[in-house]
């Protein structure tokens, strides 16, 4: 394939991440991601000491709707895909007494709806979908939206994950960042790169570690080695 064409294609994917995720949700509706019931087990903050949650990258609601069942949180759910927000609002459990959903790109402040400062924010498999050049802006914006002492919970893809190993080298746009055939991006975090970015804007890292899981597909008799990066961070209080 012509190198100039390949470079042009990669640049398109980097410049329009929201467009490709919007197309993804239009194709897959709400039948792609499983509900994330595991989040309460991994992050006890979700069931104590907090009244509001800002969920960044809500998708079609695989995280938020299980939380509505098992917590008393009021949730602000945002995503840069209009189709994802449409799916959330059309869900039978969508209730504006418990949540509000908005289209918002965390890396672009001009897209922000009017939100109150929040003391609990979740980033679950979302920052990996951004172009690497947008990551620092996104993390700074998250920091600015939070109250002093607020908690950020994080989980995303990590280097060495099976999904990374399945990408061809030609799909790598920049170190650790790959594009899928549908144009969506996937970045794989290292502990060092994660620490550098989040610490640089002022977050205190309370916990950060690789989580390794063997996922068994009994139907195909396969064991898949998954590697994620999971963390809890705090916005430092100003004395």
Q: What does this 3D model show about the protein?
A:
It is a single chain. This protein has 239 residues and is α/β, with parallel strands linked by helices. It has a single domain (3-156, 186-210, 229-235), classed as Rossmann fold. It contains 8 helices and 10 strands.
Write the layout of secondary structure elements.
Elements: H1 3-15, H2 17-28, H3 39-42, E1 52-56, H4 64-70, E2 74-79, H5 82-90, E3 99-103, E4 118-124, H6 132-145, E5 146-157, H7 162-166, E6 172-174, E7 177-179, E8 185-187, H8 191-200, E9 203-217, E10 222-235
Parallel strand pairs: 1-2, 1-4, 2-3, 4-5
Antiparallel strand pairs: 5-10, 6-7, 7-8, 9-10
- Helical percentage: 25-40%
> Given the C-alpha coordinates, what overall shape results?
globular
Q: What is the overall pLDDT average?
A: 88
Q: Do you know the CATH topology? A: Rossmann fold
Give the ordered list of helices and strands.
HHHEHEHEEHEHEEEHEE
Determine the N-to-C terminus distance: 57 Å
Strand tally = 10
The structure class reads: alpha/beta
Jot down its keywords.
239 residues, single chain, seven-stranded mixed sheet, globular, Rossmann fold
Task: Give a nutshell description of this structure.
This protein has 239 residues and is of the alpha/beta class.
